[in-house]
């Protein structure tokens, strides 16, 4: 007899709208799903946030390999997401995480107990 188990974890933790925008991921970037993305003003393209970044504009909607060249990506510009699903940079502090999306329609919120 086989026992099946289900994982009901889901990244969406609110009932707000989920909206997307097309952006360009800079050449050389390896982006994980739900990674915070920041604008490289010199290139006019987006890169994965570093632990030292204090503001991000978008989230990656899926993993992207831009090692061979810049890639157009359909990034998330509005969502309420469980922070456990965000691909935070290593060494980023909880204080920086709490304010990383300030001023954007991206919110991090743990799901409510049911």
Pick out its properties.
114 residues; mainly beta; Virus Head Decoration Protein, Chain: A; three-stranded mixed beta sheet; three-stranded antiparallel beta sheet; 1 helix; globular
Account of the 3D structure:
The chain is mainly beta. The chain has one domain (19-108): Virus Head Decoration Protein, Chain: A (Beta Barrel), CATH 2.40.300.10. The protein is built from one helix and eight strands; from the N terminus they run βββββββαβ. It has a three-stranded mixed β-sheet with strand order 1-7-8, with no helix packed on it. The protein has a three-stranded antiparallel β-sheet with strand order 4-3-5, with no helix packed on it. A two-stranded antiparallel sheet has the order 2-6. Strand 3 (36-40) and strand 4 (45-48) form a beta hairpin. The longest helix has 6 residues, at 94-99. It is globular and about 55 Å long. The N and C termini lie far apart (31 Å). The mean pLDDT is 92.
Task: Give a brief description.
This protein has 114 residues and is mainly beta. It has one helix at residues 94-99; strands spanning 19-25, 30-31, 36-40, 45-48, 58-59, 64-65, 71-81, 106-108.
List the SSEs and their pairings.
Layout: E1 19-25, E2 30-31, E3 36-40, E4 45-48, E5 58-59, E6 64-65, E7 71-81, H1 94-99, E8 106-108
Parts with pLDDT < 50 across at least 5 consecutive residues: none
The termini sit apart by 31 Å
In total, how many domains does the architecture comprise? 1
CATH architecture descriptor: Beta Barrel
Anisotropy-based shape = globular
At the first level of CATH, what is the class? Mainly Beta
Specify the structural class. Answer: mainly beta
CATH superfamily: Head decoration protein D
- The radius of gyration computed from the alpha-carbon positions, rounded to a whole number of angstroms, is 15 Å
How many helices? The count is 1
| CATH third-tier fold name | Virus Head Decoration Protein, Chain: A
Into which percentage range does the β-strand content fall? 25-35%
């Amino acid at each position: 007899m086989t026992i099946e188990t289900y994982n009901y974890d889901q990244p969406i933790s609110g009932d707000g709208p989920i909206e997307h925008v097309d952006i360009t991921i800079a050449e050389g970037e390896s982006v994980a799903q739900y990674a915070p993305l920041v604008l490289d003003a010199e290139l006019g393209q987006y890169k994965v946030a570093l632990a030292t970044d204090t503001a991000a504009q978008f989230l990656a909607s899926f993993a992207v390999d831009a090692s061979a060249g810049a890639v157009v990506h359909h990034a998330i510009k509005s969502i309420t997401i469980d922070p456990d699903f965000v691909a935070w940079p290593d060494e980023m502090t909880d204080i920086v995480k709490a304010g990383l999306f300030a001023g954007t329609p991206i919110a991090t919120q743990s799901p409510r107990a049911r």
